[in-house]
Structures are given as C-alpha cells and as structure tokens.
Amino acid sequence: MLFEKTYGIDLGSSSVKVYSMIRNKSYIEKNMIAAKGRKIIAVGNEAYEMFEKAPSNISVSSPMAFGMIANLELQEIVLYSMMRKIDKILGIGSVMYFAVPLDMTAIEKRAYYQVANGHWLRKNRVYMVEAPIADAIAMGVDLENNEGSMVVNIGAQSTNFSIITGGRIIISKKIPIGGRQMNEAVCSEVRKRYNLQIGTRTGKRLKLVMGRLADQHKQARKVVGIDSVSGLPREEVISAYVVNAGIMNCVNEIGAQMKVFLERIPPQIAYHIAKEGIFLTGGSTRIPHIDTYLASYTGYSFNLSDLYETSSVTGLEKIIHDRELRKWAQPITQRKL
C-alpha cells in the first residue's frame, strides 16, 4: 500500500525505541509506567521522573523484565502512548517489525503479537527479527558470506552473546547482568564504604559520570543519601574508585561468562572471530574503555558500536528500507501461534 505506515520497534527493559518510516526518524522513551491501583498516572519519561520519588500508593515499574514482556497490558499502553506522540492518527493495518529475544516460546511470541493487536492497536501485521541479527545488520556485518561473527549486547537487565555464521545464529547465551545490576552494585559499594544508602538513579548518574574501567582519574562527587545508622539525610563525597569497584564486579562477571562461552565455539569459527573482533553494543557499553577492559580480560579484540542502545532499531530501519534484508524478518500471525 502506498500510504501504509511501517514501524520498527525495539521493546527494551529500560527504554522503547521506535522507528517511523513515514517520518524517517527514530524515537526513544523510557519504558516506565506509573499507576495508582488501576488508574494510569504517567507513561514513559514522565513516569521515569517519578521513579523512586513516588509515594507508597503509586507504583512505578517497567512492563519488561530481563528483555521479555512481563506485563502485556501495561506494555501495550506504553507502546500506544509513544506511537500516539509520533503519529496523532494511527489508523489500522500498519506493519510492525519487532526486535525480539532468541529462543522464545509460543506464549512469548503471542505476547508480541498481542501488543500490536490488542485493545488499542489493531489489525497490524507483525514481523519478528531476532535482536542479534538486527544488531549485526546495524553494525555492518555481512550475514550472507559469514565464516563466524560474535555479537555481544550489554543491555539494561541482561547481556546476550550470539555467534552468527552462514546467515544464522548457531550458539547463543543470555546472562542476567546489565546496566541495572551495575547501578545496584554501585549503590551496594557506597553503602559498604560510607554507610550511606542512595537510590539506583543516583547510582546510575555516578556510573555515567565517574565510571572508567581504564585510565582512572582521581574524581569525586557530592551526593545526598540516607545514613544507614541514624536514618537521617546526609551529604557525602563519593570517590571514583568506589564507583568503579561496583562496576567492575559486574563487568568481571560478564568477562568470565564470555570466556566460558568462547570455549564452546568450534576452532575454525573462533579463529575468524579472533581475526575479525567481537562486535560490542548495547546501552551499557557507554562506560568508557569497556571494550579495552573486556579485551584484556578475554584476549579477543572488540569492535565497539557507537549506536549503543539504538543498534537494534537501526538494524530494523535498514531491514525496512532494503527488500534484500527483509528475509531476516519472520511474519507472525495468530494462526501460527
């Protein structure tokens, strides 16, 4: 159809990324929703502003958990709200390309179909693209003539390792460590060293401002938290070394799991990966020198993507515009589920 609306959608644990073909632009918004009982108060970035600040009778949460849809109804509300901001008149019969995790069950596939064909969004055609394939396309990996490539995506709540060869994923693994666990590790280190309790949003700010896995500088930031002993608010100057100690706990675990994963790979493919380098992407790769740190830990070189959390939706954008790449998108109908 000439005026058919086409979207590329990446539902992440931290944020929702949507590419609109008509506007030729990508949009990103926090995957958060604030509710008081059954009443929705705020969605997206507005809900994130209330995170860790809302009273006890208002719950602020993400409909996604570890890269999978945890609450179908709330996820549809978040997606619908975001798409209404992009296009005031959505209409019906749009085409939606979703970047999805690997090895989904029929129930999990049904959840993605229902998000696009539920109460608010209706009669949409749904295509699913495996997230590592979308990442690889975004980073320029040749999927057709591929002797072996490894894609690592460090997301908000999980890290995915995938080996692509001959145009398909042969081995993959997901571990429950990501940016949110790094934030919590920073909060834990601050609590141990300073007897100060801080929120995960403050932990995230410290991670982004002072987190450096190599070439560490003597930096410090003043934060406000709750004293663990007295229970009163207190200011404290936090050293960068404490922040980096928390981050390194998680990155070391990712590196250890990656070494175990690489040992499972056939030698011919491992040789090609060592020659080409491991492709690294995801929102949590914004930490400076994370590629250098992982390279020294694993012994492999890394190709760090500058797309970060938008790599999957950029891959979907390329698939939407290039008919040759659409063979990587699998149509999903209700009859198939």
From TrEMBL:
Assign the protein's first listed, main location to one coarse class.
cytoplasm
GO cellular-component term (any): cytoplasm
Instruction: Output one GO BP term.
Output: cell morphogenesis
Where is it localised?
A: Cytoplasm
Record InterPro entries = ATPase_NBD, Heat_shock_70_CS, MreB, MreB_MamK-like
A Pfam match is MreB_Mbl
Where are the bilayer-spanning segments? Answer: none
Please give one Gene Ontology molecular function term for this protein: ATP binding
Per UniProt, which keywords does this protein have? ATP-binding, Cell shape, Cytoplasm, Nucleotide-binding, Stress response
**PANTHER family from the UniProt entry:** CELL SHAPE-DETERMINING PROTEIN MREB (PTHR42749:SF1)
Q: Which family does it belong to?
A: Belongs to the FtsA/MreB family. Belongs to the heat shock protein 70 family.
Tell me the protein's name: Chaperone protein DnaK
